[in-house]
Structures are given as C-alpha cells and as structure tokens.
Amino acid sequence: AGIGKCVAMDMARRNARTILACRSRERGQAAVEEIRAATGNPAVLLRLLDTASLASVRAFASALLREEPRLDVLVNNAGTTGLPFAITSEGLEQTFATNYLGPFLLTNLLLG
User: Fold this and answer.
1) Domain that holds residue 101
2) pTM, entire model
3) pLDDT, tens digit, for every residue of 26-78?
4) N or C: the chain end with fewer CB closer than 10 Å?
C-alpha cells in the first residue's frame, strides 16, 4: 500500500521485473494482481518478508540471491509506528527491528 505500491507500479510500468516483499500473503497477492492488471507486466512477483524478523530477512535474502541473476534496485519501504511496545522472538524491540535493523540487514546481505 502507499508509497511502496506506487514505486512498484512505476517500476512495473517501465517493464522491470518487480518483486514485492510483503509480510501478508493476501495483501501482497492483491497488490501483485492489481499492478499486473494496470501495467500489463506479468513479471510482478510476490515474496514473503517480515523485516521485524532477522530470520525472515536472512531467508528472503538467501532465496533472492539464489533465484535472481541480478538486483538493480532495492527500495526499503517497510515501516511502522504507533504500535504498543513489543519484543520479537529474537529479543528485539519490534518497531526498531521493523524500521531499522531488518532493512539494514537486508541491504547488507544483498550488496554482494
């Protein structure tokens, strides 16, 4: 939704292979279908990623590096605010993990 979806739409309009990394399979798949229909680009894909989970980030990065021959653009757009204080299963504060640690780890894992 929001800025991330707009960026993905623009990339797909430019005929780029576009991978949406989403936490929710249902919302992500709905966005994929909407972007494909609006752009005519069938190369819009969904991959699951929860940036609050460093294990999810590592699994996503590993699969992406294995499946994709190259990565030209990475847009880190995950973010949350206003959630009640919570600790992830990895012992991290959830908002900090989602907004900073997860995207930082993802970027570093994909740098190559």
Assistant:
1) 3-111
2) 0.93
3) 999 999 999 999 999 999 999 999 999 999 999 999 999 999 999 999 999 98
4) C
